[in-house]
Write a structure and sequence with these properties.
- By secondary structure, the chain is of the alpha/beta class.
- The chain has a domain at 39-169: Vaccinia Virus protein VP39 (Rossmann fold, 3-Layer(aba) Sandwich).
- It has five helices and seven strands.
- The protein starts with 21 loop residues before the first helix and ends in a 10-residue tail after the last strand.
- InterPro entries: DNA_methylase_N6_adenine_CS, RNA_MeTrfase_RsmD, SAM-dependent_MTases_sf.
């Protein structure tokens, strides 16, 4: 981890998760810092596993982070990581399915991470993305980061989200999207 808890390691669930590699995590956060979306951000980490991405965001200046994972063991590990890093006030853990949570996510969020199991269907991922694109879930200027297998197709971006970058790191592909401009809106408006 970097930021205020730099050099600390976190626990990972014994099975059922695929932690983001240090190399990929560092590349993601380098881009996010360049985009200036971390400081004071409200962050949603869906399919959180150990919470590594959300915890890194909190460590680098996010004001509020919500970690969501349906697996009880993963949510318990994430809670222990939050406590061990002393981030209890700014980070909460929700034991719920990402698909269900996204339908009623209490936005607006400035940054959303989705690191689902690689075997999650494209349709299921598309449904979660569509829920995130609903009015009020994402703040203006928000960034959505999706981590998938490099062999998976491009996510099916719903109306309301526009992809702006993809970067591959071996077996891992990281996709970035932002809220799409309203039809008829002036660019940059």
């Amino acid at each position: 981890m970097a930021g205020t808890v730099g050099g600390r390691t976190i626990a990972v669930p014994p099975q059922g998760t695929r932690p983001t590699s240090d190399r990929v995590r560092e590349a993601i956060f380098s881009r996010l810092e360049h985009l200036d979306v971390l400081d004071g951000a409200r962050v949603l980490d869906l399919y959180a596993g150990s919470g590594a991405l959300g915890l890194e965001a909190a460590s680098r200046g996010a004001a509020e982070v919500v970690l969501v994972d349906v697996a009880r063991k993963a949510a318990d590990v994430a809670r222990r990581n939050v406590a061990a890093l002393g981030l209890r006030g700014s980070v909460s853990v929700v034991g719920d399915a990402a698909e269900r949570y996204a339908r009623s996510a209490p936005g607006p969020f400035d940054l959303v991470f989705l690191d689902p199991p690689y075997d999650l269907s494209d349709d299921a991922l598309g449904g979660v993305l569509a829920d995130l694109a609903a009015p009020g879930v994402l703040a203006a200027g928000a960034v959505v980061v999706v981590e998938r297998s490099a062999r998976s197709p491009e996510p099916s971006w719903p109306a309301g989200l526009a992809a702006f970058a993809r970067k591959d790191y071996g077996e891992t592909a990281v996709h970035y999207a932002e809220p799409a401009a309203e039809p008829g809106a002036e660019p940059g408006a």
